[in-house]
Amino acid sequence: MDIAATNIGRTNAYRAIAAIAALTFAVDELTKVLARASLSLCHVPSDACQQTDLTSWFGFVRLENGGSPLGFGQGLWVWVLLALVGLLLVPVYARAGAGAGLLALAAGLQLGGAIGNLVDRAVFGGATDFIRVGVVVVNLADLALLAGALIGTWVLAHAGARSHGKGVNTR
Questions:
Q1: Which pLDDT tens digits describe the chain residue by residue (171 residues)?
Q2: Of 27, 117, 136, 137, which has the fewest CB atoms closer than 10 Å, so is most exposed?
Q3: What residues have CB less than 8 Å from 27, skipping those under 6 apart?
């Protein structure tokens, strides 16, 4: 493949990542606006909080989260640093040949989710979590971050296994 074709491929990958990130961010923020407008703020999910239970293990309750689940990494600067480190994955994903479409999806989900939670922390002092799954309460940005990490890991692991298993030159 010539250099011009490689650059076009990377440009398209960056565009796809940006589009997926923008869509992820927009949907995440829209759902958080709806949650803030329709659910009263709870400090601890309990029977006293306004909750909408769809099943015994899934429902909606609004919490504000200044850190991550289980209290790791409290404070805005921890998340700014983690978001910047996450941005370093974007060029890695964009340069990968195998599974480039899935890697663009993974990077876009991670970037959009990170920006969504980072904006909430900067503007509101914490992310708005409202989706209760069992005892965990998350938001769409959290789910996008998780999905992006799982997709990216799967694609990179399988691309490495294919290249090593078939004796493909990986230079």
A1: 444 444 546 678 788 999 999 999 999 999 999 999 999 998 766 667 788 889 989 999 998 887 664 445 555 566 666 666 666 766 666 566 556 788 889 989 999 998 998 899 889 888 899 999 988 889 999 999 999 989 988 887 877 655 555 544 444
A2: 136
A3: 140
Name the amino acid, one letter, at 46: S
| pTM over 0.90, yes/no | no
CA 165 and chain centroid, separation = 31
Q: What is the DSSP letter of 125?
A: S
Exposure letters 26-47 (e unless 16+ CB within 10 A, then b): eebbebbeebeeebeebeebee
CA distance 163 to 159: 6
- Could you tell me the two tokens for 141? 């940005």
Neighbours of 157 (CB within 10 A): 10
Give kind and range of the element (H or E) at residue 136. Answer: strand 136-138
Contact by Cβ (8 Å): 143, 149: no
Catalytic residues, by residue number, are 129, 142
Which two three-digit tokens encode residue 153?
């890991």
